[in-house]
C-alpha cells in the first residue's frame, strides 16, 4: 500500500498494512527539524517522519490575484492579511509563536457595520493550474485545509464579542458566520473542481471546547455552528472528497451531531481534555468515524522522555488502531517546546507498533 491507500482505508474504517500517520508543526519547528535531520525539502521531511498525509497550505496554494496585498505590514511587527485579521510574532519561553491581535470588527454594533468591512472574494484566487501542481504529491493522501466557520470569524470580531452576539445579537452572529461559510464553500468548491480528483481530504478547523468543557451549549451549537459545518461537508462530499473536522477541547457532547452531519474524520482527540479518553472514543464512535490524533502535545511531547513517548504511542495504537479507523498524529500543531528527540520517538513508535495483520 502507498500512503494514499493507507489513509483512505483508515477513513473507510478498514485495516491496512499499517496505521497511517500525520504530522503538523509551526514554521519554527519545521526549520529546526530540517536542521536537525538534514532534510532540504518538505517532501523529504514528511518521508523522514513517515507521514502519510500532506497538508497543502503553504505547499501548493492557488495563486493570489487580489486587489489588495495578501499580507501587509501595519507597524510594530503586526501584519494584516486580505481578510483584515492581524497577527504578530511573540517570543515565548521556548521560542517564537504567532498570535492574533487588533480585532478589526470588535466594536461593530450592527450588520451595517459588518457590511462596510472590505470583504475578500474567491474571485481573488487563480486555480487554473492548481490540479497540475498537485501531481508530485499523489503518493500521499492530499489534504486541503484552511476552512473555518466559527474560529476565523473570531479573528475579525474577537472571541468574546462573537460569543456575546450569539447570546444577545443572533442576527449579527448569523450574518458573520454566513459570510465566512459562503466564502469557504465557494473557495473550496473551486479548489476541488480544479484539483480533478487529486485532493482526498478537506479539513475544517473550529475549536468548540475548552480543557474542561464546551465553549457554548449544544443548543447554541445546533443553532449557529452545526448548519454551517454541514454546508461545507455536503460540498466536500459532492466532489467525492472526505471531510475532516478539527476541534480541540472536551467536545464529547458534540460528536454525535458531527457524525450526523457527515464528518468522516474527527481530529484531534485532545488527550488531556476532560472526558476524551481514547477507550471511550473508540468504543462509542470508532465504528462510525475515523479518529485522528491522540498523542498529547500539552504534557507528553513537550515534557516526556523519548521512552515515555514511545510507550504512549504504543498504548494509543493498541486502543485506537484496533480494527482500523485511526490515523496516528499529535493532538495539535507542534510548537517549539517539543524537542526533536520526541518528534522522532513518536514517528519511530508509530512505525514500529502500527503494523497491522
* Number of H/I helices: 14
Strand order of the largest sheet: 1-8-9-10-11-12-13
Element string (H = helix, E = strand): HHHEEEEEEHEHEHHHEHEHEHEHHEH
Terminus-to-terminus distance: 13 Å
**Strand percentage, roughly?**
15-25%
Low-confidence stretches are: none
The structural class is alpha/beta
Q: Give a count of the beta strands, DSSP E runs of length 2 or more.
A: 13
Radius of gyration: 20 Å
Helix content: 40-55%
Topology, pairings included?
Layout: H1 3-11, H2 27-37, H3 42-48, E1 53-55, E2 63-64, E3 71-75, E4 78-81, E5 86-91, E6 96-101, H4 111-115, E7 125-126, H5 130-133, E8 141-147, H6 151-157, H7 159-168, H8 170-195, E9 201-205, H9 218-238, E10 242-246, H10 252-260, E11 265-267, H11 278-285, E12 290-295, H12 300-303, H13 306-320, E13 326-330, H14 340-353
Parallel strand pairs: 1-8, 8-9, 9-10, 10-11, 11-12, 12-13
Antiparallel strand pairs: 2-7, 3-4, 4-5, 5-6
Helix pairs in contact: 6-7, 7-8, 8-9, 9-10, 13-14
